[in-house]
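QA checklist item 7 of 12: single-chain prediction sanity check.
[x] sequence parsed
[x] length recorded as 126
[x] structure emitted
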Amino acid sequence: MIKLALTRDDARKHFADSGLTYASIDKAKIEALKIIIQKHLDVRNKYQADTEMKINKRNKKTVFSEDGSLLGCQLTMRCHYFNSREAITFGTSGFIGFCGWADDVNAAPLISAFIEWVDKLAGLEG
């Protein structure tokens, strides 16, 4: 069977399989993720300009430990009809959420951005 798109579960598994943990993520790495997300959204926006999506600059509920490693973070995004919806959430429980409000088509750029980011952090780029 041919798999056409990565799913949210695929992205979570890719993170787990990469060897990365929240402890390996700091503020700079979250900022790098936001840049990659926007790059992927820009490609999406090129073909669906009627609903241009942007990553929000501020991170909601971001918590770092004393050593600077991530404990939890919520990245949000906006469009002409909403201002702050989940993009990617690193839950304090360890669960990583991907735009739970969106269908698979609208989630795809966030999932592909996350995969690219994981690959860069884990040194898995081809």
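[x] summary fact logged: Strands lie at 54-64, 70-79, 82-90, 96-98.
[ ] second reviewer sign-off
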